[in-house]
Specification:
Elements: H1 2-13, E1 21-22, E2 40-45, E3 48-51, H2 56-62, E4 69-72, E5 75-82, E6 86-95, E7 101-108, H3 115-130, E8 135-137, E9 145-150, E10 153-161, E11 165-173
Antiparallel strand pairs: 1-8, 2-3, 2-5, 4-5, 5-6, 6-7, 7-11, 8-9, 9-10, 10-11
Protein name: Lipoprotein
Organism: Pedobacter jejuensis
């Protein structure tokens, strides 16, 4: 049963899951965005626009003088504020990991003492900013899975059981 739930979450992340509810999303132009998510992501604090498909050197140059941490090859993170008031850690993923290009952002916290509060805060911030998700499916651990499709960008938010509940809030540039 646990494997079935993990597989359903992974399929939803890659856009292959079945939707149980179809909502109006950003593709329906129901909300004017403050950033062109198809070009990159705007961080409020520090005030930096991060374009998609940049290399690691360009990322480190953008964050010169900031507390950007190099975690491992192809992965960096920073504590920041974005989407008007969402304060969290932001991870930058490069593909391939060595000499790759930025193609995914990961929003997370260092502390998940209150999983419901964290999930609601992420969900509210993304819904307020990007509009209603394009699809909602039944998820795991009592949480729904949400997906936004914004032109060539996919945003997903879900929880799955990986040694306990693990929240995923990600933006991925599709090819």
């Amino acid at each position: 049963m646990r494997m079935k739930l993990i597989l359903a979450s992974i399929l939803t992340f890659f856009g292959c899951g079945q939707t149980s509810e179809k909502n109006k999303g950003q593709l329906d132009n129901d909300k004017k965005l403050k950033m062109d998510i198809d070009k990159g992501f705007q961080i409020d604090q520090p005030n930096i626009f991060v374009p998609w498909n940049i290399d690691e050197k360009t990322l480190t140059d953008l964050f010169k003088g900031q507390d950007l941490k190099h975690v491992t090859t192809g992965y960096y993170n920073i504590n920041c504020t974005s989407l008007d008031s969402l304060n969290c850690m932001l991870g930058f993923h490069f593909d391939p990991r060595s000499k790759g290009r930025l193609n995914e952002l990961e929003f997370f916290r260092m502390n998940y003492d209150n999983q419901q509060k964290s999930f609601d805060e992420f969900q509210n911030a993304f819904t307020n900013y990007f509009g209603q998700p394009s699809s909602t499916t039944k998820g795991n651990e009592g949480f729904n899975n949400y997906e936004w499709r914004l032109n060539n960008v996919q945003i997903v938010h879900y929880v799955f059981d990986r040694f306990g509940p693990e929240e995923h809030m990600r933006i991925k540039k599709l090819k």
